[in-house]
Write a structure and sequence with these properties.
The chain is of the alpha/beta class and about 150 residues long. Helix content is about 40%, strand content about 15%.
């Protein structure tokens, strides 16, 4: 059986669609999950879609994706800008990995300009709202073809 694609989501993304829609849009994380699940299915892959507010749990999920998955997409949310543990976990896996953001952190507060994650992933997509996930997943699916 084909290994699943993992999509991991960091802290507070469970609140999507409920607050700050001017920054993050009106779609909920469940809406995003449904879209990604349909796109993965039509490409012949199953999906493990996870959200956690706990840094160590995200590290566990990255390790699981490295052992049991075929590829990984991650929106580490605020941990993007702080987490050496998530950086190290991503460096430790051999499957392709995409960093994704709804907003464009480079256009926001200066503390969001540093990503510890970008240095550890195959590529990054940001600034397209919920569509960043669709674009990121297409990029990952293309990588899996090669
Ligand atoms: O743009 C993104 O996807 C971010 O990863 C979102 C993070 C932020 O810390 C990053 O700099 C960029 C924040 C996610 C918080 O999501 C919320 C959603 C609704 C209400 C409040 C927070």
């Amino acid at each position: 059986m084909t290994k699943p694609i993992y999509i991991l989501n960091g802290p507070n993304l469970n609140l999507l669609g409920q607050r700050e829609p001017e920054i993050y849009g009106y779609q909920t994380l469940s809406d995003i999950e449904n879209d990604c699940r349909a796109a993965a299915k039509s490409a012949g892959y199953s999906l493990e879609f996870r959200q956690s507010n706990i840094e160590g749990e995200i590290v566990d999920h990255i390790q699981e994706a490295g052992n049991k998955g075929i590829g990984l997409m991650i929106n580490p949310a605020a941990y993007t800008h702080t987490s050496v543990a998530i950086h190290d976990a991503l460096k430790g896996i051999k499957v392709p990995s995409i960093e994704v953001h709804l907003s464009q952190p480079a256009k926001r507060e200066s503390f969001r300009r540093r990503s510890f994650v970008s240095e550890a992933v195959t590529g990054t997509i940001s600034g397209f709202g919920a569509n960043s996930y669709n674009l990121g997943l297409q990029a990952l699916l293309n990588l899996l073809k090669t």
